[in-house]
C-alpha cells in the first residue's frame, strides 16, 4: 500500500526536484538539498511528489519529516526548513514567529481532506455519531466513560480514545470543530503524531475510537470501521465525493504547503514547487485525498508565480474565493 511504503521510506530515501526556468525538467542537472517537515496528513502527498521527483532530478536531495503541523512550523518559522506541510492554516503565534525571524512565506493549498472517525472492526453499533456526541466523548473535563454514556442504547462498556498529538493540525482542527476551541480535549486519550500508531491502536482495541486523515482510513479500511458524522443534515460517510462537495461537514478541510520566499530563490526549491503544483492533483488522488478543482489549481499556480505572500486565513469569504 502506497502510504505504508512511503512512511517506511521517509527516513531512508532522498528525492528530487524539477521544472526550473532555465533548466530542462528532465535533464537531471539540478543539485542541492530541500528540507520539508510538518503534517503527517500532508506527508503522503509530499512524499509521493518527492518520489516522482527522484526520477527527474536525482541529484537533488529532498528530505520529508513528520513532526506534525505545529512541529513543522516551529522549524519553518526559524528558517530550519524550506517548506512546511500543514493540515490547517498557520496560526497567529506562528506568523509572529515568522515575522520575528524574517521568514516570509507563500501559502499554497494542495488538496482537500476529511477527518475520518474510526472504530474497531468488531464494533457493530457506532455506525454514526452527531457532533454533540463527539463533543460529549472528547471534550476537556468530560465525565463520559462508557459507550452507554454517549448513547443510551449502546453497550455499558468503557470506550478508549486514540488521537493525533497536540502538534498535529488534525488535532487542532478536530478539537476546534467538535469541542469549540483548538486544543480542547480530555487528557486520558492515547496520543501520537504517527497516524499509523493510531491505526494499530484502534484496530487492536475492541473498544477503541479515534480519528485521522481520510487517506489513512482508506489505506487500512480492512482493519477499521468508519463512523458516519451528522453535522446537522443527517449522517454522512466521508468519501472522495462527500469531501470534495463539502457535504461531509464540518470535518472536511483543505491541506497546505507553506514555502519560504528565501528558499524559493534557490533554483532547486523553485523547481520542486513548480513540479509539486503540476502533479499534486494526480498524486493527491493516488494516495487517497481529494484533488482541488481545475480552476482553483490554476489560481494556486498563479499565486505561486506571482510570489503572493501571507495567509488568506482571516478573509471573510469562502475558501475558494480566497484564491480566485
Task: Please explain how this structure is put together.
- The protein is α/β, with parallel strands linked by helices.
- It folds into 2 domains: 2-111 and 254-322, Periplasmic binding protein-like II (D-Maltodextrin-Binding Protein, domain 2, 3-Layer(aba) Sandwich), CATH 3.40.190.10; 114-252, D-Maltodextrin-Binding Protein, domain 2, CATH 3.40.190.
- Helices cover 35% and strands 20% of the residues.
- The protein has helices spanning 2-9, 43-54, 68-77, 92-100, 131-138, 147-150, 169-179, 195-203, 214-219, 240-245, 267-286, 294-305, and strands at 32-38, 60-64, 83-86, 105-120, 128-130, 160-164, 190-192, 208-213, 224-226, 228-230, 235-236, 252-260.
- Strands 1, 2, 3, 4, 6, 7, 8, 9 and 12 form a 9-stranded mixed β-sheet that branches. A 3-stranded mixed β-sheet has the order 5-10-11.
- α3 packs parallel to α4 and α11 packs antiparallel against α12 (294-305).
- It starts with a helix and ends in a 19-residue tail after the last helix.
- Mean pLDDT is 91; it is low at 4-26.
